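Justification of resources, computational component.

The compute hours requested in this renewal are based largely on the per-chain cost of generating structure records like the one below. Each record pairs the submitted sequence with a full structure-token output. That output is archived, and it is also reused by downstream analysis tasks.
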Amino acid sequence: MADESYPGDLLYHREHDWVRREGEEAEFGITWYAQEALGDVVYFDPPGVGSTVTKDQPYGELESVKAVSDIYAPASGEVLAVNGDMSSTPELTNSDPYGGGWLIRVRLSDPSELDDLMDAAAYQEYLKGL
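The structure output for this chain reads:
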């Protein structure tokens, strides 16, 4: 398992997903908090490349030894890529949630949706209230 961290260059969604924006595209993944709550991730059920994800709506599932959990889109867009490493080594979500454990890459349909997300400090404050 990775050490607890919330990188300052990411944006965070209340459902414990993160966004790394790169121009009109972004990578999505789950936070350290989410992978810790899930436990050992054993399966990732992703959306298909070319499909559309919608902000605040489930776009896939992560299965752990404890439970199956929906993954929520922190922003809307077209799926450009799915992390293929997650099909053979889904535990990357636990060991490297902000690097090798990214889930999907999207072309943002409305980049202004990111304005509703939290920075690292706000997300950590949010976690204190849970």
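The chain is about 20% helix and 35% strand. Residues 11-120 form a domain with the OB fold (Dihydrolipoamide Acetyltransferase, E2P) fold (CATH 2.40.50.100).
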